[in-house]
Request: fold
Amino acid sequence: MLEIKELHKSFGAKKVLKGISFKANAGKITGLIGKNGAGKTTIFHSILNFVESEGEITFADKKITAKTYQEIGYLPEERSLMPKLTVFEQVRFLANLKGLTNHEIRKRLEKWLVRLQVKGKSEDKIKSLSKGNQQKVQLICTLIHEPKLIILDEPFSGLDPVNTDLLKHIILDEKKRGAVIIFSDHDMTNVEELCDDLVMVNAGQVVLDGDIRFIRESFGLTRIFVKTAVPLEELQQMPHVIEVSVTKQGNYRLVIDDEKSGAAIFDKVTGGSYVQTFDQQPPTLNEIFKLKAGDE
Amino acid sequence: MKQIGIVVLETYRRQVKSWSFLLLVLSPFIFLLLSFGVGYLSATATKGNAEKVAIIAAPKQLTQQLVVDQKNTTTRYQTVATAQKALSNKDLKGYLVVKKTAGRLQATYHGTEKLSQTQSSHFLQVLAAYQQSLNLQQAKLNQQQLTALQTTPQLRQKVTHVDKNNDDAVKLVSFMLLLFLMYFILLTYTTTVAQDIASEKGTKIMEVIFSSMPARNYFYGKILGTLSVIITHLLIYVLGGIAFFLMAPQLAITKKVFNENHELITKVLGNLANLNLLYVLLGVIIFTVLAALCGSLVVRPEDTSKAIQPVMYLVMVGFFGALTLGQTDDNLIVKVASFIPFLSSFFMPIRLINEHPAGWQVGLSLLLLLASTVGLSVYVGNLYSGLILQTDDVGMLKSFRRGLKIK
Reply:
């Protein structure tokens, strides 16, 4: 388990982190979300000891030191490799630093190249690979030593849908292996799809923390999706309905201020007869994000 | 330690495997080969006797004595007429006619250009000796008078203290070699290391590396890796030098020069292979660390030349200072500079070559240099993460201040 307690960090007079605390558990994926400049990268950098911060960071109940580095796999936000090296030379250098022998690296690399469907051989120069394949090589560098703590900073940026799905599967496999996985992303769909837990930071403080399902439900079942013949104007006039819009699928999306009013709305829109869709849900993560980050 | 070793190896591999390193190592050899080649070609390109002086001497026994060497003189022409013809056909540089008239030798040189200094002294020397023997014959002296005339003065040398370094040529050559060696290494490798670091700075690969090992250790590995490259570079020259040392006495082209300067070469090597090497080594490390610091202050590799300027100025102060003041005896500036880290690598070796500084002075100077090298390395090592992980182009000073804040 990764545990962060009361993390503070200032750059000069600017306070970037103001008492951040959260836990990320083994075998679970924790999403770290927040607006640009909220402090996500500084949290990652503090975990990785790139910056000295006040507070306590422990992994498996021990402080993160040089010895712990071998248990960490880190994928930075922007991809960057050494273009003049071959794939093997690049992976060897980074994996050697993580304690793997050349023999192990060679064996594991070939498996990973197949698993990630990299179009290129281990002896190809990095610069000869496409951008997408370079990203895959970078992912191999992050995961080849089977880290116990995986930090992924916006791992899906720049990936096409096929590779996004491939990466999602890899992340889920790493979860099954029992790794602590913490990742940041601006796309809430990915976060919602993959994460078990969520930590939302805003202006250097944790504003939401916990199981993603409970977090959503804590905002109440205030969204209703319905397919009905009742006209939009009539829906807008109903008690407790704040907003009505039409989704791409042609359903009405009602925002209500009291989840208990759902039953009355159900009676009204169905009139005791069949409706194709009636779904009462909590707000989406995107909505919660906008709500909490103050963009609305 | 293992991780530092990995970085040393990687830095070493990357630099040694590059074309620029190969060119750097080979450039002096290429230059030497070209010089020798051009010299050899120009020497052999002149066909036949075109550069030779023909000797036409009346007393036949003189002819062989007047030959300086087969390359520059010839005895092929027996008469003035044939030599004259050869000269007009540009087959000869000139010809020397020696006649004996009334017991006096008269030598006349005819040519398209003047005799060389060596040739004219040789001819004069041989002719003077022969004239002397003619004079003695004509004087009809008895044995006793002859013996008395042949008495020569004696010069004896009684040296009480043999000073191995008391040889101006040895000092000058040692001094120049050491100075230019330092200058060449520093100019080349300070730029290389600064450029390498500047090209890494701000790239996310550094974050990946620093998530595997402390930035401080990576920095030490980088410096040691560069040092290994420098040592390899020097080792290639040392091996080349040894090969030359062994081959030079055998090769016709170098034999004469080598044998004439054998003592000088041995003494110069003795001057270089002592404490001076330690000064060169520590000097290279401290300058490399400073260059690394400068390289870490810029974001773009193309700004390296700007970033490295303070290091270059310091190298130039050391180099030109040593070049100007190095040969002046008992100079106060040289003495003071031999204790100042960075400059001491240029100035203390001069003192070690030219005089015998007291042991405590050498010890103190070395201690100061060593302490500064270690101190600067630790300081930059601790700042390294903060300096390297910055990606904003905010200028060198601001970048340095930010680096201080981050850590």
Remarks:
- The two ends of chain A are 34 Å apart (CA to CA).
- Chain A has two domains: 2-216, 219-293.
- Chain A has a mean pLDDT of 88.
